Give the backbone structure.
Amino acid sequence: MKKSELETMRKSFNTVKNRSDSIKESSSTKRLVKRVQEIKKYSIEHNDELLAQLLESFERNDIECILADDSQDALKIIDELLEEYDASVVAKAKSNTLGEINLKNHLKDNGIDVVETDLGDRILQLKKVDNKPVHPTGPASHLNVSNITDIVNESLDVNVDPVPREIMEAVRKDVLNRLKYANVGISGANAIASEEGSCVMVHNEGNISIVSLKDLHIIVAGIDKIVPTLEDAISIVKLETIFATGSYVTSYMNVISGPSKTADIEKKLLKNMYGAERVVVILLDNGRSDATPECLYCIGCGNCVVHCPVYNAVGNEFGFNNYLGGRGVAMSKFIEDDETCFNSGLYMCTLCGLCTLNCPVAIPTNEIIENMRKLSTEVGFYPKAHGKIKDNVSKRDSPY
């Protein structure tokens, strides 16, 4: 990342810190933190039984559910669904899981126009080069208003001034115009309630509501998103909002428990009143079954990278795809392999533990990283300097 982008990112992170500090210390938030920690621990420990219950709930709600072992499985399922709907334009909402499977580039290579509906993601999409996000909920936090103005003017062939509202209106107009041709919407889910068979999504812009109004709504989520009840899911997304944005609650909270329907004419059930006539949930494993359980406690708030000294120094070079910072490095081992984990910044981490101290679910990332370094060394992945020391000790009984 450029020096100017790092400076803007740090400024944005400081804004989040200042906004959220008082809320985090409130008694209600502390109670919520304890509750969510218990929910996530229980959910990961009982994932198999919750998944079995969820499949029954989805069937009852007329939601189709398909299990995907890895990213290739998920992409193949999506390809088949898009072909069925003859989709050439897709409306997409912000999702780390969709970034994990590299959906946007995959569909672009297949000639499908993916329209990012989240403003930050759309700005990065228009940027085209070096467009990796820097924060789960603020993907373009490293770009200042001047940078964004140049990106929007060049990409959309407009002439807006460096004024946030003008930029927003120009992007919104372009997105809504493109979405006229989309009959499929794709999103992630912040949490999924197994008892009710409900997918919960939070957003401030109202864009997920637009995505879910298409003929087909595809929801892609990791199996780690499953929790016992809707009340549990709401608790998780509320805590995520507090730590990600510094607000007690987000502007919008969508709970999707089935296709759009009405029974207002002689109580005869009709689908596709306003929203999607078909909802398909793709539950993704992609290494999660083999992952260190604590890695799966994450609620996606991004508070770890906001406080990480390494991330604040180097930016999104530290992490894997949309999974940023130390937790992203850890997940890369299970999603990909040891080499990917090594190249994602395994030895960048200072093991300071600030990520854990600022994590609402107390993921022991530094301990996980330390253990992974040991495992990485055993299979031959370690810094060249370490290798030189090892050779010296072997030859001369000295690191020098």
The chain has a mean pLDDT of 93. The chain is about 50% helix and 15% strand. Residues 86 and 318 are 39 Å apart (CA to CA). Residues 3-24 form the longest helix (22 residues).
